[in-house]
Amino acid sequence: MALLEVDGLRKTYTRGVFSRVPTFRLAADFTIDAPAIVGLMGPNGSGKTTLFELITGSNAPTAGVVKVNGRDIHKVRTDERDRLAIHYHQSYQVRHFRSFVPNALMQRAGSDYPIVHLFDEPQFNTQDGYIGFMLEFFARLRSEGRLVFVCVHPNEAFHLEIMQDICERFIFVNKGQLAHVDTFDELVARDDVRAYLGALLQ
Domains, the chain, ranges and CATH? Predict the structure, then answer.
């Protein structure tokens, strides 16, 4: 059983009441079978946070399915979804969500501790002493059989060094499209990634 299966996932945002003109589309299809630390990056507004929200069930997809440990996250009770996937946004506060379907009509999580941990732009600051603590935390989660996503919007060269050191695979999100690569060297060899990172690669 895959830890995370993202199957035909689509999210479309629109504007207008009657004409419903699309303003943004996100598309994702991938499966991760084994514990890992996955690096995620991409320009602002590219869909990174939306992807995390869809994986945790705090955002409803336009189409497709997200399964965590075999469970469709959007059919699990809202008060138990964080036992499957949990989203930590920036200063490590947990993202919350709501559903219009009563929990009594939804499935149980079947887990007591999150399988997938999604860290959305954690504050890697060399002055606050948290870097070593967080890197140890990521490694411990992985050693316990968890899947860890670390989303970074790098503005310092050491942010890239952290990603290179701890991540086993990478996803680059750009304009709602996902590119999957296996190594850091493959990541930074991409033209779109080099354009995004700019002077940090010099």
Answer: 4-201 (3.40.50.300)
CA atoms of 185 and 179, how far apart (whole Å):
14
What is the tens place of the pLDDT at every residue in 97-137?
566 676 655 677 667 789 999 999 887 766 666 788 889 99
| Whole-angstrom Cα Rg for the chain | 17
pTM of the model: 0.89
Q: What are phi and psi of 135, to 5 degrees?
A: -65, -40
CA 9 to chain centre: 13
| Alpha-carbon distance values, 123 to 40, 158, 198 (Å) | 15, 12, 21
Residues in the chain: 202
Two structure tokens written together for 5: 């299966």
